[in-house]
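writing this on my phone so excuse typos. first protein, seq and then structure
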Amino acid sequence: MTSSDSSDTQLYQITYLGAGDPDTRTVGSGEVAGIIEEAGQRGRKVRIRPHRHPQHGGPDAGKGEQS
């Protein structure tokens, strides 16, 4: 995979739920089905959410000048 491919890939935040601290990681869309299948085989619960890419300039970008 090239660097331009990875920036175009939809990312998902996977959280493994259960005993102890939840384990969270970010994966590409191509890995989601495998993670769901593996979790089902092991009897683990997972939460899957779309991962938002950070915006350039932070949350206050564009709020600078007021008239």
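second protein below, same order as before
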Amino acid sequence: MKRWQKISCSILALGLVAILSIMILRLESTGRDCDLCKQIPSLESGWVLLYPGLVGCSQKCPLALANMAKLKEGLVGTKLQFYYLISDPFVEESEVIDYLLPYQNSLSIKPLMLANDTKTLRTLGVYNPVHPNLQKKDIHNDHFILIPPNRKKLYFLGRLDLNSVSNLILEEN
């Protein structure tokens, strides 16, 4: 591949990331209907915060998990469960549990294995590394998904901001 082709591909990829980020931020304030939320049987009652991550991720995921822990500290008294949404079909649940172990004291985060549910992952806009080479890349989604207790909507959050999440919780209650 020639240098100009690599540069063109990089610019195109950055453009797509920018467009997706704008779409996610627009959805953040409105919420979306969520028949899907009722179909995920492993979700407990109360508020649910999902983060679609990869096991072994060294950049985005640790930062996202740290932000989730800060959010939990700021929302004391709110029933909020945390799930690490796994879309990688090549990872075992035991690997996910080991990866999340350092975060158990601050988050009590649970794995949510949906790697084989491609339709759900596409609906949620989650990166699904179906080819083993894609798993090696540390490139994936960096949005959060907030689901209220009534399971009628879901909110896509481009970032975790305590005030925004608190306002969404107040509006839903």
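The radius of gyration is 16 Å. thats all i got for now
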